[in-house]
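Priority: medium. Attachment 1 of 2:
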């Protein structure tokens, strides 16, 4: 959710149709967390990442335009975009940020500014994550996996065919996880990919971990999974049929699953509670510099609009 946009929603953005889903039936206990709308415009935003409280990037897009917005500690400002929507963003620092999106688009921020980098594919790329400036992974449609080793993006074969991959997270260069359609979970050990049983056939949309033995995945139908170092297990977040788009956390006891219609559910290490959000936008990405500086981004597909939420 890192944030990013999932293939089903990416396809909707490209087509300009409605990604509507019936209201979730999971309510659950609610917390008193104070989320605030700080940015609301016609720019659909689908992912967010930052290097610190005064350096945060949000990306998105619509039809044949990509959007990039930057927070400098005082205001969100547009800084360009690209020819296609962007669905994922991640970096190692203020001068090393990657954004990926439609038609295989990859953009890279260095001290010289944003520039396009050949990806070697025209498939839509859905997410990006890495462990260093020379170890970055991107996921995409139809089994697309791309790896950056410092010089160029190269293809990697997951070995399971044309599955749409939705999210990627890594604890180390030899411990990379990818989630996708039909409950697919793959793990990279530094030399090859292995399929890991998930216990579900539902689409998994996002993945995040507090460490190699504590990883979360989320997806449609209120699905939440947790890896304990040995196996994945289903977790009841009390979210009913909520369509989760992503999951993100700042610590083992501070994890949030979020998605359609502004739904946010938080794990505090003991229980899940629903956090009210002042928006009906579908939420796609989340990031924080600390417990008192949490950001979320979202979009409404039709009519097109975007939102940035902040919880101080």
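Attachment 2 of 2:
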């Amino acid at each position: 959710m890192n944030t990013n946009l999932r293939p089903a929603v990416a396809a909707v953005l490209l087509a300009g149709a409605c990604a509507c889903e019936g209201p979730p039936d999971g309510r659950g206990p609610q917390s008193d967390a104070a989320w605030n709308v700080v940015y609301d415009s016609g720019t659909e935003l689908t992912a967010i990442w930052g290097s610190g409280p005064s350096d945060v990037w949000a990306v998105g897009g619509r039809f044949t335009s990509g959007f990039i917005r930057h927070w400098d500690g005082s205001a969100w400002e547009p800084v360009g975009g690209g020819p296609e929507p962007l669905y994922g963003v991640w970096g190692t620092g203020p001068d090393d940020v990657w954004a990926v999106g439609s038609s295989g688009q990859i953009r890279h921020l260095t001290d010289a500014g944003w520039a396009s980098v050949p990806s070697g594919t025209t498939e839509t790329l859905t997410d990006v994550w890495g462990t260093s400036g020379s170890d970055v992974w991107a996921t995409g449609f139809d089994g697309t996996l791309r790896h950056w080793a410092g010089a160029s993006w190269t293809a990697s074969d997951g070995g399971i065919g044309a599955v749409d991959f939705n999210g990627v997270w890594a604890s180390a260069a030899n411990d990379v996880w990818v989630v996708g359609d039909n409950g697919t979970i793959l793990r990279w050990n530094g030399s090859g990919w292995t399929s890991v049983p998930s216990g579900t056939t539902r689409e998994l949309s996002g993945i995040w971990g507090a460490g190699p033995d504590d990883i979360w995945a989320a997806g449609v139908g209120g699905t939440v999974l947790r890896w304990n170092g040995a196996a994945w297990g289903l977790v009841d977040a009390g979210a009913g049929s909520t369509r989760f788009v992503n999951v993100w956390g700042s610590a083992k006891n501070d994890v949030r699953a979020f998605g359609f219609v502004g739904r946010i559910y938080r794990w505090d290490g003991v229980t899940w509670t629903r956090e009210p959000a002042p928006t009906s936008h579908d939420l796609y990405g989340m990031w924080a510099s600390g417990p008192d500086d949490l950001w979320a981004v979202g979009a409404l597909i039709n009519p097109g609009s975007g939102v940035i939420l902040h919880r101080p």
